């Protein structure tokens, strides 16, 4: 079901339908910042498996989107540095890699117990997250696609067939995939600069290690 969210009535209908679909373990297409993503309930095994099936990768790394900074403490270890970065750059294009709480009943962490967390900028995504709580979200299409992101382009090649609901918010502004900072080691490391000014990141995190070239990581 594709819903154009351009009017207040359809926006509410779309949000309600998307939240219900996610609770059932189904997939939802939604706008993020500069790209469309595919979302699943972070705590529903059926949903996260469907997400991996849709992308055709059993080893797919799935970042987690959250509605607010305070949500993160419930899913991962939050240091003062992590909190400073969240307050300084969220909502927005910054993904932070943290140690997930080992007691969580989900299948999103990698082999070393790490999880990538972000609070997206698009208001529609934030409204949905407010209703659902944390969602596992991956980009629908490669970040390097030319031109503004649209639902038609993002969910081509049959991806839309995996969705129960698609929230169409029109064309999204052009931009780079999010910056990524890894806080799971002995020192914080910038894995990808993204659209953020590195100097601003260093101001918020003075110990940040900035490699000469970013390391490829999964994120949106």
Break the fold down into its secondary structure elements and pairings.
Blueprint: E1 2-4, H1 8-23, E2 28-31, E3 36-41, H2 45-55, E4 64-65, H3 80-89, E5 94-99, E6 114-118, H4 123-132, E7 135-139, H5 151-154, E8 165-168, E9 179-182, E10 189-192, H6 198-204
Parallel strand pairs: 1-8, 2-8, 4-6, 5-9
Antiparallel strand pairs: 2-3, 3-7, 4-7, 5-6, 9-10
Helix pairs in contact: 1-4
Task: Tag the structure with descriptive keywords.
220 residues, alpha/beta, DHBP synthase, ten-stranded mixed sheet, 6 helices, 10 strands, disordered C terminus
Describe this structure as you would to a colleague:
The protein has helices at 8-23, 45-55, 80-89, 123-132, 151-154, 198-204; strands at 2-4, 28-31, 36-41, 64-65, 94-99, 114-118, 135-139, 165-168, 179-182, 189-192. It is of the alpha/beta class. It has a single domain, classed as DHBP synthase, CATH 3.90.870. It has a ten-stranded mixed beta sheet, with helices on both faces. A hairpin with a 6-residue loop joins strand 9 (179-182) and strand 10 (189-192).
């Amino acid at each position: 079901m594709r819903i154009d969210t351009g009017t207040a009535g359809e926006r509410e209908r779309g949000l309600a339908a998307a939240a219900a679909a996610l609770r059932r373990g189904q997939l939802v297409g939604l706008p993020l910042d500069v790209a469309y993503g595919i979302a699943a309930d972070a705590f529903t095994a059926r949903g996260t498996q469907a997400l991996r099936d849709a992308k055709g990768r059993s080893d797919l790394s799935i970042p987690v989107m959250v509605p607010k900074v305070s949500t993160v403490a419930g899913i991962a270890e939050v240091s003062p540095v992590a909190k400073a970065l969240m307050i300084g750059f969220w909502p927005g294009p910054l993904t932070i890699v943290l140690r997930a709480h080992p007691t969580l009943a989900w299948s999103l962490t990698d082999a070393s117990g790490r999880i990538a967390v972000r609070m997206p900028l698009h208001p529609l995504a934030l409204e949905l997250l407010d209703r659902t709580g944390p969602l596992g979200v991956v980009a629908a299409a490669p970040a390097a696609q030319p031109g503004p992101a649209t639902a038609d382009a993002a969910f081509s090649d049959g991806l839309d067939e995996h969705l129960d609901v698609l929230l169409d918010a029109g064309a999204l502004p052009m931009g780079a995939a999010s910056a990524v900072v890894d806080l799971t080691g002995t020192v914080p490391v910038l894995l990808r600069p993204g659209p953020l000014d590195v100097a601003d990141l260093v101001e918020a995190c003075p110990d940040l290690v900035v490699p000469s070239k970013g390391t490829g990581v999964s994120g949106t």
